[in-house]
Specification:
29% helix, 15 strands, Creatine Amidinohydrolase, alpha+beta, 4-stranded antiparallel beta sheet, 3-stranded antiparallel beta sheet
Length: 249
């Protein structure tokens, strides 16, 4: 399948969406506290994007009804915002795709509500580290396998589960473009990275070592099979001759 290649101008359009998304995540970090609901966060995000001249691309995507995915504790991905108040010790992943003038940026981030348990705090640190190790491999001439390999090895070294059914993807004017970007792999294998490719890298790690998941009856919600906490950190990355360009930081 042909992989879309973006010009430098097109990448800068995506960077505008990425700046809005990064700023929105900074606001979310201020809102996260015991008592707030993920439904309140969803409403605030949609209003924030509107004021910035942007919109939430996933609202309506394949019938998804919200501006954000909000995944709490053992919900590892694609959770629906709810009216249940967040509690101290919870973790919540807020995942957003921003559309600015027809160009998209995608970033999910896990937030702790007050102080997480020490093992959860370590999981969050290590999952962020796995993301940035993957980003460091996102260079012209490397392969998708190089990205996945370093993420997988980092997860295994920590004793965590790696949720393999959930992968990154290409992105541009559509949420999901080729290629898939697995967070596991073999060095030197898979598609070679070319200048102008734009991808998301989004490792999902669980405290339980299996990484197995259940897919909910609603067609969206994905939970850890063993009930353990899951976290996700995601950036949108452009592959440039100068190295990886993080569009959502």
């Amino acid at each position: 399948m042909k992989i879309p290649i973006k010009s430098r101008n097109e990448i800068e359009y995506m960077r505008k969406a990425g700046r809005i998304l990064a700023d929105c995540h900074r606001e979310i970090a201020k809102w996260i506290k015991p008592g707030i609901t993920t439904l309140e966060i969803d409403v605030r995000v949609e209003e924030y994007l509107k004021q910035a001249g942007a919109s939430a691309e996933q609202k309506g995507y394949k019938g998804f009804p919200y501006a954000t995915c909000a995944s709490v504790n053992d919900v590892v991905c694609h959770g629906f915002p709810s009216s249940n108040p967040l509690k101290a010790g919870d973790v919540v992943t807020i995942d957003i795709v921003v559309n600015k003038d027809g160009w998209l940026a995608d970033s999910g981030w896990t937030y702790a509500v007050s102080e997480p348990e020490p093992n959860v705090a370590r999981l969050m640190v290590d999952a962020r580290s796995a993301l940035y190790k993957g980003i460091a491999e996102a260079k012209v001439g490397n392969t998708l396998g190089d990205i996945g390999y370093v993420i997988e090895q980092h997860a295994l070294a920590g004793g965590y589960g790696l949720v393999k059914p959930l992968v990154g993807h290409g992105i541009g004017q559509s949420i999901h473009e080729p290629p898939d970007v697995p967070c596991y792999g073999v060095r030197g294998k898979g598609r070679k990275l070319r200048e102008g490719m734009v991808i998301t890298i989004e490792p999902v790690l669980t405290l339980g070592p299996s990484g197995a998941v259940f897919f909910g009856d609603d067609g969206w919600t994905i939970t850890s099979a063993d009930g353990s906490v899951g976290v996700q950190f995601e950036h949108t990355i452009a592959i440039t001759r100068e190295g990886p360009y993080i569009l959502t930081e």
